[in-house]
Amino acid sequence: MAFPFHLIQKHRLFVVLVLMAAIVMLFQNNSRPIIKPATSPSDDPVVVLVWNWPFLENSITEVNVCRDLYAIENCILTCNKSMFHRANVVAFHHRELQNNISNLPHQKRPHNQKWLWVSLESPSNTKGIHHLNGLFNWTMTYKRDSDIFIPYGHLMKRSQHTDVSIPEKSFLATWVISNYHRKSWRAEVHLNLSKYMQIDIYGKSVKKYLPKSLLLPTISKYAFYLAFENSIHEDYITEKLWRNSFMAGSVPVVLGPPRVNYEKFIPSDSFIHVNDFPSVEELASFLKNLWQDRTGYEKYFNWKRHYTVKMHTNWTERCFLAC
Asked: d(Cα 77, Cα 50) in Å, to the nearest integer?
């Protein structure tokens, strides 16, 4: 299932006019090019209104958050619904709409106001799309072809190479799972894999709760982490890889989109893909042998010499990208 990009209205004329204006500004001085800022302090600010704060978490009320936190002038990020008629962009998080379309504004939508559809869920876990047909201008999702791309995480290049530090390993493999469904594909893979190797499993569903403060310290003691996604979709690579594996210092064994998709985000030698093996028995044999091969195992951490992990968990940071 693909994301509903047919919902998005395209306004090509606006883009053309902006480009023409930029060209005129660039060459208005015959002696040398002049590039003027898009806005100045005298211009009306861009107003980005977050209609329903994602998951009803604490929301931003400071109108100067873009300037104070991100050094972006002349942009207001707010959740004050009284500013609806002033807003240039209104952002809607899908989770708060999918079960109750009445959460949409009841006021008449101002001319040229852009509506932004926001979601980090996979298509398999996105319901109620058909109610929203034709309402939105832009998308903000984890998909690389979104209008505004908000991945769960990414690798940032280090300013200089550094030595690799690998946490001491005491156990073979682990899996932390909050929603365990016996008939899911990832549960079946885990069950079959556990016949050939020891896998310690944590999570509410299996009654071995792991508090957030102990999540990374616990995973760091394991050589491998099962970064199994809850559904298989292009670019759907979540915190299971970025936080639970990379930040904890455990080699990820991934179950998700094809290897070639992962390699758009991370080095090819930084992870092990379930699909690389014809059977889970051969996968288990590879993992057990690799754990005993210190040199071979450490190669999976070569990425740390050149990169560090940047997690994207702050909804303020995500929403300000609309500015």
From this structure: 7
